């Protein structure tokens, strides 16, 4: 390895010194930070290369990555605020508008006695920022008026990326609601109402862009296949930033498929919104839109993806220790490669990059898929009694009710041994006391699990350990059973 230029002898000596120091003092990140305080970034990179080439991925490699990411960060100047193309910043709104939005946030009624919904205040503020920008660009007074409303409506129809009829309708409605709240003249409200009626007619026959994109989304088995490919590439890449990005993207498109939370609710912390009972994860959070509590069990096949962000490239033998550290530190689930907090819209961004549509489509995609599964469950047979002389027969209601109950929590055990292959090992270490389960394929609408020991005469089953495409084809049924 030294001969082919992967790393130098000096890098090996530095790595040995780091490992001895960590072994003596513990606390890998703090110890490595102090020990390498006077090192250059090149020395850190060469030491990491030696660690990556010689040892199986472990927590120490992740600690070195964090040290490299934070090297010299205190000397960096803060990034300037990026200019907006189609709107102004909220602090650039007229003073009365800013005061109105503060009152909305506090829940005070407006001039017409209405109280704005907390879920719509952010959208209304965004449209108000667009309105002021286009009034400013056209030289009009930065206030709600009919000329400014005309200029704003025209700008909506001349964007580089065309807006849908429903989006334009929603924007004009938000401006009308803002006008009602701050108490504009009735003449402007009448004008906006007339424009809303016109756009309502235009939008009735239009197919929403969101709906058109949902029709092109891959099914869940394909999404899981994409995620597994990303995790495999993350395990093999030498670039820490790219590896963490691939892991975050894989979890974003899988974990949040059966849990279509809103983007504002995807910043989950271990010990706060993510709980662990010793065997399974559980979500427990307050939904930002409704302020209601949401509690859901995370079945093991999805918990396995959480484990990948716990490990962050470390070997599965370190899972218990790193998981305990995550809960102790209340670490975020989605973090950047330097362990800084990810952007709150990261999940939606990765959905757009991987699946060509934002995360807002997850809920609709799940609803559509659930309807397809319900039809499949009604049409497929459930046991020998459902077979007639000419093959499978559709079950009646009473016959369907006599089918065996679903045991989805045991349907797939997260021990895909086929994924353990040298440095691309991704699987969680299997629990020796846990039975291995099989997935029956005779009835996709009614999945129940059977221990391997009881399967001597059963042939129509797929065993854990077969190729990924066959195993994860069964995932198409799982979201029906998420509690």
Low-pLDDT residue intervals, each spanning 5 or more residues: 380-483
Mean pLDDT: 75
Number of strands: 8
Roughly what fraction of the amino acids lie in strands? 5-15%
The quaternary structure here is: single chain
Count of spatially separate domains? 4
Quote the CATH topology of the largest domain: hpI Integrase, Chain A
Total number of helical segments? 18
Summarize the structure.
The protein has 483 residues and is mainly α. The chain has four domains: 9-74, no CATH class; 99-205; 220-363, hpI Integrase, Chain A (Orthogonal Bundle), CATH 1.10.443; 366-481, no CATH class. It has 18 helices and eight strands.
Write the layout of secondary structure elements.
Elements: H1 9-25, H2 28-35, H3 41-54, H4 59-70, H5 95-106, H6 118-137, H7 146-156, H8 165-182, H9 186-204, H10 209-214, H11 220-236, H12 240-254, E1 274-276, E2 281-286, E3 293-298, H13 300-311, H14 319-329, H15 346-355, H16 361-379, E4 387-388, E5 391-392, H17 397-401, E6 437-440, E7 450-451, E8 461-463, H18 468-471
Antiparallel strand pairs: 1-2, 2-3, 4-5, 6-7, 6-8
Helix pairs in contact: 1-2, 1-3, 2-4, 3-4, 6-7, 6-8, 8-9, 11-12, 12-13, 12-15
Word description of this protein:
The protein is mainly alpha-helical and 483 residues long. The chain has four domains: 9-74, no CATH class; 99-205; 220-363, hpI Integrase, Chain A (Orthogonal Bundle), CATH 1.10.443; 366-481, no CATH class. 48% of the residues lie in helices and 6% in strands. The chain has helices at residues 9-25, 28-35, 41-54, 59-70, 95-106, 118-137, 146-156, 165-182, 186-204, 209-214, 220-236, 240-254, 300-311, 319-329, 346-355, 361-379, 397-401, 468-471; strands at 274-276, 281-286, 293-298, 387-388, 391-392, 437-440, 450-451, 461-463. The strands form three sheets. It has a three-stranded antiparallel β-sheet with strand order 1-2-3. Strands 7-6-8 form a three-stranded antiparallel β-sheet, with no helix packed on it. A two-stranded antiparallel ribbon has the order 4-5. A hairpin with a 4-residue loop joins strand 1 and strand 2 (281-286). Helix 1 packs across helix 3 (41-54), helix 2 packs across helix 4 (59-70) and helix 12 (240-254) runs antiparallel to helix 13 (300-311).
